[in-house]
Amino acid sequence: SKGSLVHDNTTGIVFYRNVWAHNVERHPLVKGGAQVLMVNNLIYNPKHRAVHYNLMALEWGDHPYVTGQITAIGNVMRGGNDTDKGLPFLMIGGDGDLDFYGRDNRAVDLHGNKLPMFGRYGETRAKIVEKQAPLMSTAGMTVLPAGQVETSVLATAGARPWDRDEDDIRVLYFVAEGRGFVINDEKEVSAYPSYGAVFAPFNEADWNLDTMEPKSGRYPGQKGPIQEHLSPRDADMRQGAK
Q: Which end of the chain has fewer beta carbons closer than 10 Å to its terminal beta carbon, N or C?
């Protein structure tokens, strides 16, 4: 189970308001010389690595090393049931340096105890070089304080947050409730979905083209607010609680 891979010397990569949940590693993995901006992302239940950087000497050979860059602002990492004890927010491996700017990032374990910001795997010359200013611009982004990220991102993440299926809801509610595990096969919890095609006309006048949000506040196909699909047992339990 993997998250996101940013390959060597890739630049201009932005991760903005995403959820990574129940991955062994790659939240993301940034390879040698790559340049990445991370803003207001939520990482939940990373197993062996959260964010990590690795310029591998075995891959670069005799090519001159390029220093990587990560700018991380307002991100949250929460340990879960599978997370290694003491897992840092950012780890460095390999043989090349990383320039890093971080501000208002939080990392806590399953019980809310603070986790370290930095760590390493491998005893090499690679080092994290902390910078005093962002290495990529956040112009045009709404940057939330870390304490608001989880609530906001869980409510809006995904291509169709107004029309989530049962798998989307299960994953996001488990994140909110501190539940769930890394799986080896989708059949352990569900299956690959099969949907019929749906269509909606695009009327340019109905949209804010700067943010790609509908001026009306309601997206095509949106029927109402996000709602959990309760099993009959859970529905009975909640009705009984009332």
A: C
Each residue's pLDDT tens digit, 38-79? 999 999 999 999 999 999 999 999 999 999 999 999 999 999
| Structure tokens given for 222 | 């949106």
Q: What is the DSSP string of 94-113?
A: ESS-EEEEEES-EEE-TTS-
Burial class (CB within 10 angstroms; exposed 0-12, middle 13-18, buried 19+) of 109 = middle
- DSSP three-state, residue 18: coil
User: Half-sphere exposure of 35 toward its Cβ, with a 13 Å CA cutoff?
Assistant: 8
Q: How far apart are CA 28 and CA 20, in angstroms?
A: 9
Q: Residue 58 and residue 65: Cα distance in Å, rounded?
A: 12
Task: Return the CA Rg of the chain.
Answer: 20
Distance (Å, rounded) from C-alpha 90 to C-alpha 19? Answer: 17
pTM as predicted? 0.87
Amino acid sitting at position 46: P
pLDDT-derived band of residue 238, with 50, 70 and 90 as boundaries?
low
Express as a percent the part of the chain with pLDDT over 90. 71
No. of helices (H) and no. of strands (E), the chain: 4, 16
Which tokens go with 117? 């910001």
**Average pLDDT of span 94-107:** 98
Q: Are 154 and 176 in contact (CB under 8 A)?
A: yes
SS3 at position 204: helix
SS3 16: strand
Report the first-to-last Cα separation within the chain, whole angstroms.
39
